[in-house]
Amino acid sequence: MYYTYILRCCDNTLYTGIALDIEKRMNEHFLQNEKCAKYTRTHKAKKLESLWISENRATASKLEYHIKHLTKKQKEEIISLKSLEVLKDKLPIENYNYSDMKLNSVN
Questions:
Q1: pLDDT of 56-79, one tens digit each?
Q2: Rounded Cα gap, residues 78 and 40, in angstroms
Q3: What kind and span of H or E run contains 41?
């Protein structure tokens, strides 16, 4: 099982990524250790905004790719509606399950 996620950073920017072990990956981002993404090293991650579960890496990577190419307004829509409807013409959105998993974030 793979996860595709959107993080909100302290400067209100959004970062999208994928992970196999979501708890480990969030700790890397929030603690800004050497394994965090280059982006979250300079834009401190504040909160996990959205999380989707996929069966494999290829499916998760496709979702990540398409989210990264959306405008910030479209990403905010995905976050607020908890829906990938904006991507229905590009992806089989039924392959992704939204997760309400709550993970630690930075205040």
A1: 999 999 999 999 999 999 999 999
A2: 21
A3: helix 38-42
Q: For residues 6 and 75, is the Cβ–Cβ distance under 8 A?
A: yes
Percent above pLDDT 90 for the chain: 84
Q: Which two tokens stand for residue 94?
A: 């039924």
Tokens representing residue 35 in the block: 């394994």
Domains and CATH numbers, the chain: 2-98 (3.40.1440)
Quick check: 30 and 62 in contact, CB under 8 A?
Answer: no
pTM for this predicted structure: 0.91
51: nearest Cα among 86, 26, 33: 26
The identity of residue 68, as a single letter, is K
Task: Give 6's contacts (C-beta < 8 A, 6+ positions apart).
Answer: 14, 15, 16, 48, 49, 50, 51, 67, 75, 78, 79
CA 76 to CA 55: how far, in whole Å?
Answer: 25
